[in-house]
Write a structure and sequence with these properties.
The chain has 277 residues and is mostly beta strands. The chain has 2 domains: 106 residues, E3 ubiquitin-protein ligase SopA (Pectate Lyase C-like, 3 Solenoid), CATH 2.160.20.80; 149 residues, no CATH class. It contains no helices and 24 strands. The radius of gyration is 22 Å and the shape is elongated.
C-alpha cells in the first residue's frame, strides 16, 4: 500500500497499518497516527503531532522531520532505522529496542533515549540533557553532543570519534569504552565501573572519581584537577595533570602532576604507583 502526498489529521489517523510506504505526507493535529503499525517505509514526510510511532515494529524512515508537537514520538517500538532526518522534539525514544540513527540531527534532545536497548548512532548531532539515560548495548561513531548528564546509568557502550560538551557525564555507567574523542565537562564518570578512554582529550574538574576500574590509554587531561579520588585507576597520560587526589589503587603515569594529595588516614598510598616523566 502506498500513501503519497497526504495531509493526515485526527487521532490514530493510520492506526494499525501494516506494510505501507508513506511518501511526501504530513501528520498533524492528531495523536498516535501510526500506533501499533509495522513494516513501514516513510520518506520525505513530516510529523507535527504527539506520539507518532508507538508500539511499532520494523520501520524505516528517511529524509523526514519530527517537529512542533511531535514529542515523545517513538516509545515501545522495535527495529527502527532513521536516516538523513531531523528530530527536533524532546523525549523521542523510550523503552525502544534495535534503534539505528544515521546522519541525523536532534537539536532538542532532552530526555531522549531513556531505557532503550541495542542502539546504533552514526554521524549524529544532539543537544539536550539526560541523553541515553539507563540505556544499554550502544554503539556510536561520529557523535557531536552538547548537554548535561549524558549516558547516566548506561551499560555496554562503545564510542568512536565524538566531541562531547557536557557535565556529570558517564555517571553510574558500566562497561564503557571511548576512542579518539574529546570530552569537555565537570565531574566525569563518577560512580561508574569498567570505563576505558583511548586516545582521548578530556577537560574535567574533579573527573574520574569514585570509579571501580578507570583505564586511560594515551589520553590528555587538560584543566583537570583533583582527579581519580577514591578510584581504582590505570592511566597513561600524555600531558600534565593539575592535581591527583587519593586514588585507591593502580598506576598513574603522566608528563607532570602539579599536586599529588595522598591522605594516609583515607587511603593506602602504597597501593598506587605514580610516575612523572
Amino acid at each position: 500500500m502506498e500513501i503519497k502526498q497526504q495531509y493526515l489529521t485526527g487521532e490514530r489517523a493510520l492506526y494499525n497499518t501494516h506494510g505501507a510506504t508513506i511518501i511526501d505526507s504530513t501528520f498533524d493535529d492528531g495523536e498516535s497516527p501510526l500506533k501499533e503499525s509495522s513494516d513501514l517505509k516513510i520518506y520525505n514526510s513530516i510529523f507535527k503531532w504527539k506520539y507518532p510511532l508507538w508500539y511499532c515494529n520494523n520501520v524505516y524512515v528517511k529524509n523526514t522531520s519530527f517537529i512542533d508537537e511531535a514529542r515523545a514520538g517513538i516509545w515501545y517500538t522495535n527495529n527502527i532505522t532513521i536516516e538523513d532526518s531531523t528530530i527536533a522534539v524532546v523525549k523521542t525514544f523510550r523503552r525502544a529496542t534495535n534503534v539505528t540513527l544515521l546522519n541525523t540531527t536532534l537539536p532538542t534532545a532532552e530526555e531522549t533515549f531513556w531505557s532503550c536497548k541495542n542502539i546504533t548512532l552514526k554521524n549524529v548531532s544532539s543537544v539536550g540533557k539526560y541523553f541515553l539515560m539507563n540505556s544499554e548495548n550502544i554503539k556510536i561513531d561520529g557523535f557531536n553532543h552538547n548537554g548535561q548528564y549524558l549516558l547516566d546509568g548506561a551499560k555496554n557502550v562503545e564510542i568512536h570519534n565524538a566531541r562531547i560538551v557536557t557535565k556529570d557525564a558517564f555517571w553510574n555507567c558500566e562497561n564503557v569504552v571511548v576512542y579518539d574523542s574529546t570530552i569537555i565537562g565537570e565531574y566525569l564518570g563518577w560512580n561508574s565501573k569498567n570505563v576505558r578512554f583511548v586516545n582521548c582529550t578530556i577537560d574535567s574538574l574533579q573527573g574520574m572519581c569514585y570509579m571501580d576500574g578507570i583505564v586511560m590509554e594515551n589520553c590528555k587531561l587538560l584543566n583537570t584537577n583533583l582527579a581519580f579520588e577514591l578510584s581504582k585507576v590505570e592511566a597513561t597520560i600524555d600531558s600534565n595533570i593539575d592535581s591527583v587526589k587519593n586514588p585507591i589503587e593502580g598506576h598513574i603515569k603522566a608528563k607532570g602532576i602539579g599536586e599529588i594529595i595522598l591522605d594516609k588516614d583515607i587511603i593506602d598510598p602504597n597501593k598506587t604507583k605514580i610516575e612523572v616523566d
